[in-house]
Design brief:
39% helix; 283 residues
Protein backbone atom coordinates (compact mmCIF):
# COMPACT_ATOMS: atom_id res chain seq x y z
CA UNK A 1 0.00 0.00 0.00
CA UNK A 2 1.47 3.36 -1.04
CA UNK A 3 1.70 5.79 1.90
CA UNK A 4 -0.26 9.00 1.62
CA UNK A 5 1.67 12.24 1.29
CA UNK A 6 0.37 13.56 4.62
CA UNK A 7 1.57 10.55 6.62
CA UNK A 8 4.72 10.75 8.70
CA UNK A 9 7.63 8.60 7.51
CA UNK A 10 8.18 5.38 9.44
CA UNK A 11 10.37 5.60 12.53
CA UNK A 12 13.72 4.20 11.37
CA UNK A 13 15.89 1.64 13.08
CA UNK A 14 17.55 3.09 16.17
CA UNK A 15 20.94 4.66 15.56
CA UNK A 16 23.88 2.79 17.13
CA UNK A 17 24.74 5.97 19.07
CA UNK A 18 22.44 8.86 20.03
CA UNK A 19 22.37 12.13 18.14
CA UNK A 20 21.00 15.62 18.84
CA UNK A 21 18.45 17.29 16.55
CA UNK A 22 20.03 20.75 16.61
CA UNK A 23 17.05 22.63 15.20
CA UNK A 24 13.37 21.72 15.21
CA UNK A 25 10.01 23.41 15.82
CA UNK A 26 8.02 21.17 18.15
CA UNK A 27 5.05 23.55 18.21
CA UNK A 28 4.84 23.64 14.42
CA UNK A 29 5.04 19.83 14.46
CA UNK A 30 1.78 19.89 16.41
CA UNK A 31 2.93 19.74 20.03
CA UNK A 32 0.75 21.82 22.32
CA UNK A 33 1.47 20.62 25.84
CA UNK A 34 3.87 18.53 27.90
CA UNK A 35 2.18 15.27 26.95
CA UNK A 36 2.56 16.06 23.23
CA UNK A 37 6.22 16.94 23.70
CA UNK A 38 6.89 13.74 25.63
CA UNK A 39 5.22 11.64 22.93
CA UNK A 40 7.26 13.33 20.22
CA UNK A 41 10.51 12.86 22.14
CA UNK A 42 9.69 9.21 22.83
CA UNK A 43 9.28 8.71 19.09
CA UNK A 44 12.60 10.48 18.50
CA UNK A 45 14.28 8.40 21.18
CA UNK A 46 13.14 5.20 19.48
CA UNK A 47 15.21 6.30 16.45
CA UNK A 48 18.23 7.29 18.54
CA UNK A 49 17.56 11.04 18.60
CA UNK A 50 17.89 11.64 22.31
CA UNK A 51 17.73 15.46 22.60
CA UNK A 52 16.35 18.37 20.58
CA UNK A 53 16.55 22.14 20.41
CA UNK A 54 13.13 23.62 19.68
CA UNK A 55 13.45 26.97 17.96
CA UNK A 56 11.25 30.06 17.88
CA UNK A 57 10.48 32.33 14.97
CA UNK A 58 8.21 34.89 16.66
CA UNK A 59 7.37 36.13 20.14
CA UNK A 60 4.60 33.62 20.75
CA UNK A 61 6.73 30.64 19.76
CA UNK A 62 9.66 32.05 21.77
CA UNK A 63 7.57 31.98 24.92
CA UNK A 64 6.27 28.52 24.09
CA UNK A 65 9.73 27.11 23.32
CA UNK A 66 11.22 28.47 26.54
CA UNK A 67 8.37 26.95 28.52
CA UNK A 68 8.45 23.63 26.64
CA UNK A 69 12.12 23.23 27.49
CA UNK A 70 11.12 22.97 31.16
CA UNK A 71 8.61 20.16 30.52
CA UNK A 72 11.11 17.51 29.45
CA UNK A 73 14.84 17.20 30.14
CA UNK A 74 15.42 16.11 26.54
CA UNK A 75 14.28 19.51 25.22
CA UNK A 76 16.23 22.76 24.99
CA UNK A 77 15.18 26.04 23.35
CA UNK A 78 16.39 28.88 21.14
CA UNK A 79 14.60 32.22 20.92
CA UNK A 80 14.58 35.06 18.39
CA UNK A 81 12.40 36.76 15.81
CA UNK A 82 12.74 35.28 12.34
CA UNK A 83 14.04 37.75 9.72
CA UNK A 84 10.79 37.58 7.77
CA UNK A 85 8.96 38.85 10.88
CA UNK A 86 11.16 41.85 11.64
CA UNK A 87 9.13 44.54 9.88
CA UNK A 88 7.56 45.65 13.17
CA UNK A 89 10.25 44.50 15.60
CA UNK A 90 9.71 46.72 18.62
CA UNK A 91 11.57 47.62 21.80
CA UNK A 92 8.93 45.69 23.74
CA UNK A 93 9.67 42.60 21.61
CA UNK A 94 13.36 43.00 22.34
CA UNK A 95 12.74 43.19 26.07
CA UNK A 96 10.75 39.94 25.99
CA UNK A 97 13.44 38.16 23.98
CA UNK A 98 16.20 39.39 26.26
CA UNK A 99 14.40 37.98 29.30
CA UNK A 100 13.71 34.65 27.61
CA UNK A 101 17.27 34.34 26.28
CA UNK A 102 18.67 34.46 29.80
CA UNK A 103 16.71 31.42 30.98
CA UNK A 104 18.93 28.42 31.71
CA UNK A 105 17.32 25.99 29.25
CA UNK A 106 17.40 28.51 26.40
CA UNK A 107 20.73 27.58 24.84
CA UNK A 108 20.90 29.85 21.77
CA UNK A 109 19.68 33.07 20.21
CA UNK A 110 17.92 32.10 17.02
CA UNK A 111 16.77 31.78 14.47
CA UNK A 112 17.88 35.16 13.24
CA UNK A 113 19.63 36.35 10.09
CA UNK A 114 18.51 37.40 6.62
CA UNK A 115 15.96 36.05 4.16
CA UNK A 116 15.95 37.55 0.68
CA UNK A 117 13.65 34.89 -0.79
CA UNK A 118 10.47 36.23 0.83
CA UNK A 119 9.54 39.90 0.86
CA UNK A 120 7.63 40.04 4.15
CA UNK A 121 10.21 42.34 5.78
CA UNK A 122 12.40 44.91 4.00
CA UNK A 123 16.16 44.30 4.02
CA UNK A 124 16.80 47.35 6.21
CA UNK A 125 14.56 45.99 8.97
CA UNK A 126 16.16 42.58 8.69
CA UNK A 127 19.67 44.05 8.92
CA UNK A 128 18.81 46.08 12.01
CA UNK A 129 17.19 43.11 13.76
CA UNK A 130 20.08 40.81 12.84
CA UNK A 131 22.58 43.24 14.32
CA UNK A 132 20.50 43.43 17.51
CA UNK A 133 20.36 39.63 17.82
CA UNK A 134 24.14 39.42 17.31
CA UNK A 135 24.62 41.85 20.17
CA UNK A 136 22.14 39.93 22.34
CA UNK A 137 23.99 36.65 21.77
CA UNK A 138 27.24 38.27 22.84
CA UNK A 139 25.68 39.89 25.91
CA UNK A 140 24.07 36.68 27.18
CA UNK A 141 27.02 34.51 26.12
CA UNK A 142 25.04 32.06 24.01
CA UNK A 143 25.45 30.80 20.42
CA UNK A 144 23.90 32.66 17.51
CA UNK A 145 21.69 30.46 15.31
CA UNK A 146 21.50 31.89 11.79
CA UNK A 147 18.79 31.66 9.15
CA UNK A 148 20.42 32.45 5.80
CA UNK A 149 18.35 32.33 2.65
CA UNK A 150 19.85 33.85 -0.50
CA UNK A 151 21.89 36.22 1.67
CA UNK A 152 25.35 34.66 2.07
CA UNK A 153 27.43 37.77 1.37
CA UNK A 154 25.43 40.12 3.60
CA UNK A 155 25.36 37.59 6.44
CA UNK A 156 29.16 37.38 6.45
CA UNK A 157 29.53 41.15 6.01
CA UNK A 158 27.30 41.97 8.98
CA UNK A 159 28.92 39.33 11.18
CA UNK A 160 32.31 40.88 10.33
CA UNK A 161 31.11 44.43 10.96
CA UNK A 162 29.45 43.58 14.28
CA UNK A 163 31.97 41.01 15.43
CA UNK A 164 30.67 37.46 15.55
CA UNK A 165 29.76 35.84 18.87
CA UNK A 166 32.02 33.09 20.14
CA UNK A 167 29.76 30.43 18.60
CA UNK A 168 27.83 30.83 15.34
CA UNK A 169 25.65 28.08 13.85
CA UNK A 170 24.36 28.23 10.28
CA UNK A 171 21.02 26.46 10.64
CA UNK A 172 19.97 24.42 7.59
CA UNK A 173 23.18 25.32 5.81
CA UNK A 174 22.36 26.08 2.18
CA UNK A 175 25.65 27.11 0.64
CA UNK A 176 28.09 25.46 -1.71
CA UNK A 177 31.67 24.33 -1.07
CA UNK A 178 33.09 27.83 -1.48
CA UNK A 179 30.71 29.30 1.10
CA UNK A 180 31.29 26.35 3.43
CA UNK A 181 35.03 27.03 3.28
CA UNK A 182 34.45 30.71 4.14
CA UNK A 183 32.31 29.74 7.15
CA UNK A 184 34.61 26.99 8.38
CA UNK A 185 37.63 29.30 8.17
CA UNK A 186 35.80 31.70 10.49
CA UNK A 187 35.13 28.92 12.98
CA UNK A 188 31.40 28.74 12.30
CA UNK A 189 29.40 25.54 12.71
CA UNK A 190 27.30 24.20 9.83
CA UNK A 191 24.06 22.38 10.57
CA UNK A 192 22.64 20.17 7.83
CA UNK A 193 18.95 19.34 7.41
CA UNK A 194 16.94 17.17 5.02
CA UNK A 195 17.99 18.98 1.81
CA UNK A 196 21.51 17.55 2.12
CA UNK A 197 19.96 14.14 1.38
CA UNK A 198 18.31 15.31 -1.85
CA UNK A 199 20.02 13.74 -4.84
CA UNK A 200 19.73 16.96 -6.87
CA UNK A 201 21.63 18.94 -4.21
CA UNK A 202 25.18 18.22 -5.40
CA UNK A 203 26.75 21.55 -4.28
CA UNK A 204 25.24 21.19 -0.81
CA UNK A 205 26.35 17.58 -0.53
CA UNK A 206 29.86 18.61 -1.54
CA UNK A 207 29.83 21.20 1.26
CA UNK A 208 28.65 18.58 3.77
CA UNK A 209 31.37 16.14 2.73
CA UNK A 210 33.99 18.87 3.27
CA UNK A 211 32.83 20.24 6.65
CA UNK A 212 35.10 19.16 9.54
CA UNK A 213 33.29 16.84 11.91
CA UNK A 214 33.84 19.17 14.87
CA UNK A 215 32.00 21.93 12.97
CA UNK A 216 29.10 19.73 11.84
CA UNK A 217 25.59 19.40 13.23
CA UNK A 218 22.46 17.57 12.08
CA UNK A 219 18.94 18.94 12.32
CA UNK A 220 15.44 18.39 10.99
CA UNK A 221 13.93 21.91 10.87
CA UNK A 222 10.76 19.87 11.40
CA UNK A 223 8.01 19.93 10.32
CA UNK A 224 9.74 21.16 7.15
CA UNK A 225 12.41 19.70 4.85
CA UNK A 226 11.81 15.99 5.37
CA UNK A 227 14.80 13.97 4.17
CA UNK A 228 14.96 11.66 1.15
CA UNK A 229 13.12 9.41 0.35
CA UNK A 230 10.21 11.04 2.22
CA UNK A 231 10.45 14.53 0.77
CA UNK A 232 7.11 16.33 0.99
CA UNK A 233 5.83 14.33 3.95
CA UNK A 234 5.59 15.70 7.53
CA UNK A 235 8.92 15.90 9.31
CA UNK A 236 9.62 15.26 12.99
CA UNK A 237 12.79 15.04 15.14
CA UNK A 238 13.16 11.27 14.70
CA UNK A 239 13.86 11.90 11.01
CA UNK A 240 17.27 13.32 11.96
CA UNK A 241 18.31 9.66 12.02
CA UNK A 242 17.69 9.42 8.26
CA UNK A 243 19.83 12.49 7.61
CA UNK A 244 22.61 11.26 9.91
CA UNK A 245 22.82 7.92 8.09
CA UNK A 246 22.84 9.64 4.70
CA UNK A 247 25.64 11.96 5.84
CA UNK A 248 27.65 9.01 7.09
CA UNK A 249 27.36 7.32 3.70
CA UNK A 250 28.24 10.57 1.91
CA UNK A 251 31.33 11.10 4.07
CA UNK A 252 32.38 7.44 4.15
CA UNK A 253 32.04 7.50 7.94
CA UNK A 254 30.90 4.94 10.48
CA UNK A 255 27.33 5.79 11.57
CA UNK A 256 28.01 5.37 15.28
CA UNK A 257 31.18 7.43 15.14
CA UNK A 258 29.51 10.24 13.21
CA UNK A 259 26.50 10.29 15.55
CA UNK A 260 28.80 10.48 18.57
CA UNK A 261 30.87 13.25 16.99
CA UNK A 262 27.81 15.29 16.03
CA UNK A 263 26.41 14.98 19.55
CA UNK A 264 29.76 16.02 21.00
CA UNK A 265 29.70 19.11 18.79
CA UNK A 266 26.16 19.94 19.93
CA UNK A 267 27.19 19.48 23.56
CA UNK A 268 30.18 21.78 23.07
CA UNK A 269 28.49 24.51 21.04
CA UNK A 270 25.26 24.73 23.05
CA UNK A 271 26.85 23.64 26.37
CA UNK A 272 24.04 21.15 26.83
CA UNK A 273 25.88 19.24 29.54
CA UNK A 274 26.05 22.43 31.58
CA UNK A 275 22.25 22.70 31.68
CA UNK A 276 20.86 20.84 34.66
CA UNK A 277 17.62 18.89 34.62
CA UNK A 278 16.45 20.73 37.74
CA UNK A 279 14.40 23.10 35.61
CA UNK A 280 12.87 20.37 33.45
CA UNK A 281 10.62 17.39 33.84
CA UNK A 282 11.91 13.84 33.82
CA UNK A 283 12.49 12.18 30.46
Amino acid sequence: MTPRKGERPPVPERLPAPVVDAHTHLDACGAKDAADVSTMLDRAGAAGVDRVITVADDLASAGWAAEASTWDSRVFAAVAVHPTRTKDFSDADKAVLEELSRRPRVVAVGETGLDYYWDYSPPEAQHEAFRWHIDLAKRVGKPLMIHDRDAHADILRILTEEGAPESVVFHCFSGDLEFARACVERGFVLSFAGPVTFRNAAPLREAAAFTPVDQLLVETDAPFLTPHPFRGRPNEPYCAAYTLRDLAALRGADVAELASAVSATADRVFRLRNVTSDDAGSA
